């Protein structure tokens, strides 16, 4: 009896999936794992979402017609209220901090059936929420995102083995690695492995395009995260030598000296920025102002505090000198 029930359940799930593929059903295909692994209730949830999706579609169509017929401010404001999850990111962040379970769950569902990758930061923070249902939604969405990335990596890697001379595949792989590493999904040893692969491809790319500051900067940034400090510093100094008017090399070198706890190194970079009159973006000005403020602070006896790394001379270059900026 149980076997017959499972067979019927799987056939229904297969039929529902086919209907989704041919766009007869409007709800998202991401609900299918729930429908397959939670008999009866999963299919019931799918049907509820289908009814919701059809209802929203009818409402959007009706309001769209009204907008064409009437320019009244009231109707236009109703259309604005139909905006989807993108405008609700801030409410989600707030909802995760307050005791409002119904709001949290509703917003998490909206994100799951919209585009979870756009809200990866919120989903990552939701994993530690005290609401177990919110945690379940977040973990499910993140697992689906991870699976999609894994499939894309596997497909591209197979193609790169078949066509190693096709540089477009390398470009696609680099772009995918950048998105994946920036999503926050990669953690621990997995992140380190992907980051090493990313750095290796960036090194090849920077060698092929020596006049591109962006590739050299991305390489130095990856090496800094990997803890390959000597290689990272060489790339930073090359950026400064080759593009002295660009802020990127100076700002990254400040990060390097900060990790080395070398206050004198940071001061040398700040002085060089001022000497070269480097144009700074808003983010660059904020970083420079922060370190200038930190450097201006004094101890009780009127002397500037010296960090442990600075006292040891950490982060100095060959021959004991600071960066040649």
Structure, explained:
With 325 residues, the chain is mostly helical. The chain is elongated and about 80 Å long. The protein has helices at 2-21, 32-37, 41-69, 73-81, 89-95, 101-112, 120-126, 132-162, 167-183, 188-208, 213-226, 229-242, 247-260, 263-276, 282-296, 308-312. The termini are far apart. Mean pLDDT is 77; it is low at 58-63, 78-90 and 298-325.
Portion of residues within helices? over 70%
**Oligomeric nature of the chains:** single chain
Structural class: mainly alpha
DSSP strand (E) fraction?
under 5%
Total count of helical runs of at least 4 residues:
16
Task: Produce the secondary structure layout.
Layout: H1 2-21, H2 32-37, H3 41-69, H4 73-81, H5 89-95, H6 101-112, H7 120-126, H8 132-162, H9 167-183, H10 188-208, H11 213-226, H12 229-242, H13 247-260, H14 263-276, H15 282-296, H16 308-312
Helix pairs in contact: 3-4, 6-8, 7-8, 8-9, 9-10, 10-11, 11-12, 11-13, 12-13, 13-14, 14-15
């Amino acid at each position: 009896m149980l076997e017959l029930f499972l067979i019927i359940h799987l056939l229904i799930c297969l039929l529902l999936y086919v209907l989704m593929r041919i766009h007869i059903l409007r709800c998202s295909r991401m609900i299918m794992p729930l429908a397959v692994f939670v008999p009866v209730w999963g299919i019931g949830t799918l049907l509820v979402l289908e009814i919701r999706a059809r209802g929203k579609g009818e409402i959007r169509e009706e309001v769209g017609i009204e907008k064409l017929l009437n320019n009244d401010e009231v109707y236009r404001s109703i259309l604005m209220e139909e905006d989807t999850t993108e405008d609700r990111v801030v409410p989600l962040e707030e909802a995760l901090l307050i005791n409002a379970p119904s709001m949290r769950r509703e917003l998490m569902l909206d994100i799951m059936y919209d585009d979870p990758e756009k809200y990866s930061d919120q989903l990552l923070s939701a994993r530690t929420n005290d609401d177990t249902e919110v945690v379940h939604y977040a973990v499910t969405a993140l697992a689906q995102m991870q699976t999609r990335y894994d499939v894309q990596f596997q497909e591209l890697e197979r193609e790169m083995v078949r066509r190693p001379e096709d540089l477009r595949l390398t470009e696609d792989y680099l772009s995918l690695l950048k998105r994946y590493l920036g999503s926050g999904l990669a953690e621990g040893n997995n992140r380190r492995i992907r980051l090493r692969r990313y750095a290796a491809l960036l090194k090849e790319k920077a060698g092929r395009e020596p006049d591109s500051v962006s590739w050299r900067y991305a390489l130095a940034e990856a090496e800094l995260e990997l803890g390959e400090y000597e290689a990272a510093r060489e790339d930073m100094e090359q950026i400064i030598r080759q593009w002295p008017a660009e802020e990127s090399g100076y700002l990254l070198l400040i990060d390097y000296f900060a990790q080395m706890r070398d206050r004198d190194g940071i001061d040398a970079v700040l002085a060089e920025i001022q000497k070269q009159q480097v144009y700074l973006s808003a983010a660059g000005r904020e970083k420079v102002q922060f370190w200038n403020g930190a450097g201006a602070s004094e101890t009780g006896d009127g002397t500037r505090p010296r960090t442990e790394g600075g006292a040891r001379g950490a982060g100095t270059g060959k021959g004991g000198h600071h960066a040649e900026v």
